[in-house]
Design brief:
Strand content: under 5%
Distance between the termini: 36 Å
Helix content: over 70%
Order of helices and strands: HHHHHHHHHHHHH
Number of strands: 0
Number of helices: 13
Largest sheet: none
């Protein structure tokens, strides 16, 4: 019994040490540096308390704008990736010819680096020679052409759709894994009792998919708040601050040499993400166990 208790702990030492060294300690240091005037213009670092946070509050308009864009991106991508991912999983879990190849095709964009995806879609969405506008003109819909990444009505929506294209395959795979754990006997028994496809989905498939739904929702929410590379490559947060998100704001402050202020922004982003993640997990757990409550 003693060996069984010690055995798992032995293998935890290395990962916990690496996690502490590469994540926990830097995070703790960031809380300190967020309260300093650390910058590229002065070799000395002075403790200034909450001055950086006061500066952020004074410039709350830009911060709230970036927060609003981040929320729009997070909610939009979470809803679309989960909805389309579930739809694809339901279709490709059935008797579809070439479904393994289709699964591979839909999953391939997940393996692509955000830099590559950003460069591809910067070209596709180019207002002059981009593939999208060229196709619209070719089929007589030239009136629908736009400067997709510059127009205030389409810039953020375009970024959302690129992220959905890139990541929907990941959600699909999670849902496929969940669907394949559901015994077929349940659906067959329900069908014999006269239940239609909608009722089978609503009362059997959906409740048993709840663990997959929880995983996808939580990961999408966290990744939504962490978005940086895709926005930076596609628009650099512009034009102006039209598509500015929290991480491009942090990057901008850091690039300007205001390291203490950018760290304070980063700490706020960490706290917001943690609150959203834990709150979502709590809500999803209650939702999953709603009948028991």
């Amino acid at each position: 019994m003693k060996k069984k208790k010690v055995y798992p702990l032995y293998f935890l030492i290395l990962p916990v040490a690496v996690y502490g060294l590469l994540f926990f300690l830097p995070s703790m240091f960031s809380f300190y540096y967020a309260m300093t005037d650390w910058n590229s213009y002065n070799s000395e670092i002075h403790f200034v308390g909450f001055e950086n946070y006061k500066t952020i509050l004074k410039d709350s308009k830009n911060y709230l704008h970036a927060l609003g864009n981040t929320l729009f991106f997070t909610v939009g991508t979470t809803v679309l990736k989960n909805g389309l991912g579930l739809l694809l999983a339901l279709v490709l879990n059935g008797k579809v010819k070439g479904k393994n190849m289709l699964r591979l095709i839909f999953y391939l964009p997940v393996t692509m680096a955000p830099l590559i995806v950003g460069l591809i879609f910067t070209s596709i969405l180019n207002p002059s020679y981009g593939l999208l506008n060229t196709c619209l003109r070719a089929i007589g819909l030239g009136g629908l052409t736009k400067a997709w990444l510059v127009n205030k009505n389409t810039a953020m929506v375009s970024v959302v759709m690129v992220e959905v294209w890139k990541s929907v395959g990941f959600n699909m795979i999670i849902y496929l894994a969940g669907l394949q754990t559901i015994p077929k006997d349940y659906a067959e028994a329900a069908s014999i009792d006269g239940a239609g496809k909608w009722h089978v989905f609503r009362y059997i498939t959906l409740p048993m998919l709840m663990p997959s739904i929880q995983v996808n929702l939580l990961l999408n929410l966290i990744n939504g708040f962490k978005v940086f590379e895709l926005v930076f490559i596609l628009t650099r947060g512009g034009p102006g601050n039209l598509t500015e998100v929290l991480n491009t704001l942090v990057f901008g402050e850091f690039s300007a040499g205001r390291y203490g202020l950018s760290t304070a922004f980063g700490v706020l982003l960490l706290l917001i993400t943690a609150v959203i993640a834990f709150s979502s997990l709590k809500i999803l757990s209650r939702w999953a166990g709603g009948e028991e409550d």
